[in-house]
Amino acid sequence: MSSSEAVSSLGISAGGLQWVNFPGYDEAEKYKISAAVVVPPGRRLVATSGHVARDSTGNPMDDLELEFATAFDKVEKSLHAVDPSLSPEELWGSIYQLTTYHAGGIKDPYVFKTLLAVAAGYFREHRPAWTAVEVKELNGGVRFEIAVNAALP
Question: Could you report the average pLDDT of every consecutive run of 10 residues in the chain (153 residues)?
């Protein structure tokens, strides 16, 4: 296989990461993710804890879209704490891998569509590698948890 046959698509994020997809990786377009992401030399590697969302009383949120958005906001706050000089676009464009955990599954079309819509609002055109894991339950009764790895400039 030649090198041109091995690569289906390439792109560069706002954070300077290169995303790569191989021919036949249908998930790339469908879910706006990447098969692989290349981190340039000299980057600061950052791993976040898993972030969940709770309401003002500490209970799981009733609104699924708000739960997703609040967890994503916590990721942004974590990365911003590492480097306050970076814009939100640079922070989200520096994420090369995310893992999400879904209590009760992700197969429900509403859940999946809502998650992709929320994620698109943060990632825009950037396409990190993404692993979604279905679990029986999460600590404290929440339905969603997200952890990321980023390569900050």
Answer: 62 87 89 92 96 95 97 98 96 97 90 96 95 95 98 95
Q: Could you state, in order of their start, the residue ranges of all structural domains in the chain?
A: 3-152
- CA pair distance 64, 50, nearest whole angstrom: 17
Phi, psi of 58, deg, nearest 5: 90, 5
List, in order, residues 6 or more apart from 2 with CB less than 8 Å away: none
Identify the burial level of 26 via C-beta atoms within 10 angstroms of its C-beta, where 0-12 means exposed, 13-18 middle and 19 or more buried: exposed
The CATH architecture one would assign to domain 3-152 is: 2-Layer Sandwich (3.30)
| Beta carbons within 8 Å of 91's beta carbon, 6+ residues apart | 15, 76, 79, 80, 83, 150, 152
> What pairs with residue 45 in β-bridges?
151
Query: Does the predicted TM-score (pTM) go above 0.85?
Result: yes
Pairing mode, if any, of strands 95-103 and 129-135? parallel
